[in-house]
Design brief:
By secondary structure, this protein is mainly alpha-helical. The chain has one domain: MetI-like (MetI-like fold). It contains ten helices and no strands. Helix 3 packs antiparallel against helix 4 and helix 8 packs antiparallel against helix 10. The protein starts with 9 loop residues before the first helix and ends in a 9-residue tail after the last helix. The mean pLDDT is 88.
């Protein structure tokens, strides 16, 4: 039997899923033991037990100066920035994706511009955003919006263009206007794709958020990571990295389940 026809059962699939994670943990544990055997005070690869102890301290002990648990305060601040930025980008991407995909004049005017805009490295214009919007919340949210919106527009407009022409012709035959076609034909086809595009954009969105917080901020997970790096506090940094990864995974999983519930006809991508 060919390998492409072999499919693991559910228990085996779960076991195979765990193998890469267990391998990474094992490799880290071995490397940590080797470094600490040479230097018991090594800070580069702290022992897993030390990381767990640090995580417990971070999530429970309040800051002496502010009285807040900084771990949860940083999480709330970063999530607020991320959700606002991704939400604005999704709205802009949906509107312009529909317009560019449906209207030939809009496509001729903006398609090339969006393509060029998507090639601009967002981190390269971060200093400009700080100069224009200041060091507050607006510049950080703007970086997320600028970073992922062109991708969303290109992806959604292409999805609109790929809608079978027969559907458009039938809608026009029944007397539907351009607005009605956009709302009743194109929009239902694009919404599930929007959720997928947002899922794919979460990684870059987190990257832009952490970069902005690291450069100019007084709160947030990116700020905290770069604040403690000068002390080589790898146990704190790794705790935040694991937490950010978990949050990103949970957001991706929630969007996936939302898409399956809201648009069961769209099919599951398995990712």
């Amino acid at each position: 039997m060919r390998l492409i026809n072999l499919k693991p059962g559910r228990p085996l699939a779960l076991f195979l899923l765990l193998i890469p994670f267990l391998a990474v943990l094992a490799a880290y544990g071995i490397a940590s033991d080797i470094r600490r055997a040479e230097n018991p005070k090594d800070k580069l690869l702290p022992a897993p037990a030390a990381i767990v102890e640090t995580a417990q301290r971070l999530v429970t002990q309040p800051d002496r100066r502010s009285g807040k648990v900084l771990f949860w305060s940083d999480t709330l601040v970063s999530l607020q920035r991320l959700i606002i930025g991704v939400g604005i980008a999704a709205l802009i991407g949906l509107v312009f994706g529909l317009l560019i995909g449906l209207l030939p004049y809009m496509r001729a005017t903006f398609a090339g511009f969006v393509s060029v805009l998507s090639m601009v490295p967002p981190l390269a214009i971060l200093p400009i955003l700080f100069i224009v919007f200041g060091l507050g919340e607006v510049s950080k949210i703007a970086l997320i919006v600028i970073g992922i919106t062109p991708f969303l527009i290109r992806d959604l407009s292409q999805r609109v263009v790929e809608i079978p022409q027969e559907m458009m012709v039938k809608a026009q035959t029944l007397g539907a206007s351009s607005l009605v076609i956009g709302l009743r034909v194109a929009l239902p086809q694009v919404l599930p794709r929007l959720l997928q595009a947002v899922r794919l954009s979460l990684g870059p969105a987190w990257l832009f958020l952490i970069a902005a917080e690291a450069i100019a901020s007084d709160a947030g997970m990116g700020y905290r990571i770069f604040l403690v790096r000068r002390y080589l506090a790898m146990d704190v940094i790794l705790t935040y990295v694991v937490w950010i990864t978990l949050l990103a995974f949970l957001m991706d999983y929630a969007l996936k389940k939302l898409g399956e519930r809201a648009f069961p006809w769209f099919g599951r991508d398995g990712l």
